[in-house]
Amino acid sequence: MQPHASDSSTDPIAFIGGGNMASAIIGGLLKRGLASSQIQVVEPFAEQRAKLVQQFQIEVSETPGASLNRATLVVWAVKPQTFREAAEQSRAHTASALHLSVAAGIRSDSIANWLGTERVVRAMPNTPALIGQGMTALFARPAASTEDRLAVERVVQTTGAYLWLDQEAQLDAVTALSGSGPAYVFYFIEAMVQAGTDMGLSREQAHQLAVGTFVGASALAREATEPPDVLRARVTSKGGTTHAALSAMEQGGIKEKFMQAMQAARQRAIEMGDEFGAA
């Protein structure tokens, strides 16, 4: 993992798309001291535009215009299926900017072609970015300079940790692992809460216990020097309760099915690049 970069930059930043991920980044930038006057957003939906103005007191427009010319960095926080259209509407105003995409699946070849520039960095963040606990993987095209990489780091570090990749294809695996990963955690929390209530706990008690367990176990895994299988073994006494639970999971093939599910997510990321990223 790369060390955190300085957050002293005050260069203007534009966001194309103003949804949850853009809001997470904007909130982080403002907390780090970037002036609201240095941020502008293009957001087609009126309700979201009003929300952004009320929450951040920033410039928000419905469509791209000449004001985008001043942005040195453009963050693409649009849905994959709308990226190409948005790029075609904006490219006349963003030719000299560095471009950072957080759109799943859309490959940098397509982005560079649509925008007419090679200064493109792709990112795959995840939703814990909303509380500054995100995990973001990054890939830069060769034309992105060291200074460009530092500029990107200054942005993404406001939402949590980041990791640079050497191969763009790895982003599809990242999408399956950490991009979609929070949903897997929520899925298991749902199951634990339901099981807890079925066994006589209140829903509030079961929720507190399940969430607290994930938080604590994740913190232990982060701090520990041993791999997860060793940590798991330490909790699992043969013939005990944990052994009974894990044996039931093994008999049900849960680990294999879970890994298959992640492969399905990776495959869908590849398909999205093919489907929405045609040049």
Could you characterize the architecture of this molecule?
By secondary structure, this protein is α/β, with parallel strands linked by helices. Helix content is 51%, strand content 13%. The protein contains eleven helices and eight strands. It has helices at 20-31, 46-56, 83-90, 108-115, 146-156, 170-179, 181-198, 203-223, 228-235, 241-251, 254-276, and strands at residues 13-16, 39-42, 59-61, 73-76, 98-101, 120-124, 134-140, 160-164. The chain has an eight-stranded mixed β-sheet, sandwiched between helices. α2 links the parallel β2 and β3 (59-61). α3 (83-90) runs parallel beside α4 (108-115). The longest helix has 23 residues, at 254-276. The radius of gyration is 21 Å and the shape is elongated. The two termini are 32 Å apart. Residues 1-8 have low confidence and may be disordered.
What descriptive keywords fit this protein?
single chain, 279 residues, alpha/beta, eight-stranded mixed beta sheet, 11 helices, disordered N terminus
Approximately how much helix is present in the residues?
40-55%
Percentage of residues in strands: 5-15%
**What low-confidence regions span 5 or more consecutive residues with pLDDT below 50?**
1-8
Mean pLDDT score, rounded?
94
Distance between the termini: 32 Å
Give the overall shape. Answer: elongated
Total beta strand runs: 8
Q: What class would the helix/strand composition place it in?
A: alpha/beta
- C-alpha-based Rg, rounded: 21 Å
What does the oligomeric state look like here? single chain
Largest β sheet strand count, sense and barrel closure: 8 strands, mixed
Please trace the helix and strand order, writing H or E for each element.
EHEHEEHEHEEHEHHHHHH
Please state how the strands of the largest beta sheet are arranged side by side. Answer: 3-2-1-4-5-6-7-8
Query: So how many helices?
Result: 11
